[in-house]
Amino acid sequence: KDIDTVRTALKGQEAMAYAVADNRSALLAEWDEPALVAQLQGMVAELREAAGFLEEELRELTGEAAEDAPAPAPQPRIISVGPGGFLRQGPGDQQAPIPPAPPRRLVPAKPSPEIADKTSLLDLTERICKWPMGHPGEPDFHFCGEAVNPGFPYCVEHCGRAYQAQLPRGTRRPPPPLPFGGPRVR
Question: Helix H segments across the chain?
């Protein structure tokens, strides 16, 4: 039998472009299944296989049941593991997006009874003493909350602790010694 061929006078890159376009058109084409079945049934088995069609595929196209054909063995599923042990998803493995959570109603937290009457960070203004009481990690941490000394961030008592007058130069203690004998002089 003869096989149809196409000869052109194209050369070089034009010939390559034509070959790519010809192969691309095969990817975009669809089969006329009744005509395909008629042609495949008219071929001998060797030619059918040379054309890329097996007996099972011909039976699928014609809708015939396979005679004593063993069930195909289950194929192993290949899973790619990415950095950190996370499974990579293939196109068929993608899950539907998780729907967003319903909006939460913002309700102010009710303070615990031991700090209910104490000044919190949200209560601070420019007229309230900002001296911290306790450690920020402790549950009863709060601020002084008294009226400020005008011009300062703290009340009179805490201004006395924060701002201490310097002693005259003659009565000051000497500074502590520097570690490792002090700086090097060259």
Answer: 13-28, 33-41, 45-50, 55-62, 156-162
